[in-house]
């Protein structure tokens, strides 16, 4: 049985942050009812379209396993339908701009009055404070959460990362908040408000950088490459390029074919315990006992030389050969995989992390399946719903409307 079977989620989310959260809940078995504006729906349905007149991959890849209901929540009949939905559901999730739910007439106070056991979960750009009214997108959160100032190279500008830590990262945080609130509701019987601010989520993911900010007071950050290169530290955690961020120095190194392949690189960590194996693999056996290289501390000022020698070796191997040679030697390395390679990777298909899905408008498309595997609640990926695909089903079987009432709702313009 699916872990969240029986839980009904009223899903008011759009774009990426909120939909990531409700998609996870749906994969774990919740009945997620995506409420969309009649006519247009979630704006991502028509953003970055690659197949004419078909829901975009942007939308389809973020809205699996959900049902779609079109409802104009500013229409009087639409509001009545929404009230019924709030009574029937366990969780309401939204990521509108601040104040939108209140303007709709469904702020937290109203929700509590309609259904005291409902959990209301929101993504906002910022928590309470000077920026709480701001609209926020992914890269704004990456910047305001400290990720951009600490990403990139020391001689370059702040850089955002391709991983959607602001949107999908916040969706993950919110999903945890929701299941925690559901757990607490079992003993209290009451709902509660759950908030995940995008800035807070990014800060949480940048925890080690705030660690380093405080360590600066005690002296230079010795594991950063700039220390070995004699570049002074300023007042803030600097950008660390591809340094590993932990106590074990690591870098991205060229592999065979790097001249023509932008991803012919490997990540290579000079873990202290693996030092003798690293030395023998790269043909520098004398470094094992040489006091100039033998200890992590001695190597800190020679990282360019050390990684230069390792790179001379990795450049003679493909990134996969480096992996094959280093893994049995317990040397932590990782090939830089392109999205093409990930899409084609057999083992990811076998685990359901990358899956093919059939869609009536698009045909077959590739998507990312549930990244968390529960042994007793395996997730089946079901294609995203068409706009309003489940209108009748939800209004009749969940809300119990008769045919005549359904007609009145249709005539009111609430759902079309
Ligand atoms: N029926 C009637 N009205 C609806 C509706 C429906 N089914 N669904 C949405 N609306 C209305 C809302 O009520 C709102 O109306 P008002 O502004 O008149 O109150 C309006 O649509 C637009 O909502 P919005 O302000 O949230 O949308 P936007 O495109 O202007 O902003 C975004 C988008 C993402 C910047 C904003 O929603 C936001 O900051 N969200 C919080 C942070 C977040 O999640 N960001 C991540 C987005 S992914 O990168």
- The radius of gyration computed from the alpha-carbon positions, rounded to a whole number of angstroms, is 26 Å
**Secondary structure: number of strands:** 11
Order of helices and strands: EHEHEHEHHEHHEHHHEEHHHHEHHEEHH
- Which molecules are bound besides the chains? oxidized coenzyme A
N- to C-terminal distance = 35 Å
Strand content: 5-15%
Count helical runs: 18
Structure description:
The chain is α/β, with parallel strands linked by helices and 416 residues long. It is built from 18 helices and 11 strands. α2 (57-60) links the parallel β2 (31-36) and β3 (66-70). The two termini are 35 Å apart. 36% of the residues are buried. It binds oxidized coenzyme A (CAO).
Q: Characteristics of this structure?
A:
416 residues; 13% strand; three-stranded antiparallel sheet; alpha/beta; 18 helices; binds oxidized coenzyme A; single chain; six-stranded parallel sheet
Short description:
The protein has 416 residues and is α/β, with parallel strands linked by helices. The chain is 36% helix and 13% strand. The model has no long low-confidence stretch (mean pLDDT 97).
List the helices and strands and how they pair.
Elements: E1 8-12, H1 17-27, E2 31-36, H2 57-60, E3 66-70, H3 76-88, E4 91-94, H4 100-104, H5 108-114, E5 119-124, H6 138-144, H7 168-188, E6 193-197, H8 198-205, H9 207-215, H10 225-228, E7 250-254, E8 265-269, H11 275-281, H12 296-300, H13 303-314, H14 319-326, E9 333-335, H15 339-344, H16 346-351, E10 354-359, E11 363-368, H17 391-398, H18 403-411
Parallel strand pairs: 1-2, 1-4, 2-3, 4-5, 5-6
Antiparallel strand pairs: 7-8, 8-9, 10-11
Helix pairs in contact: 1-7, 6-8
Bound molecules: oxidized coenzyme A.
Oxidized coenzyme A (CAO) is lined by residues 15-18, 35-37, 71-74, 95-97, 100, 103-104, 123-125, 135-138, 167.
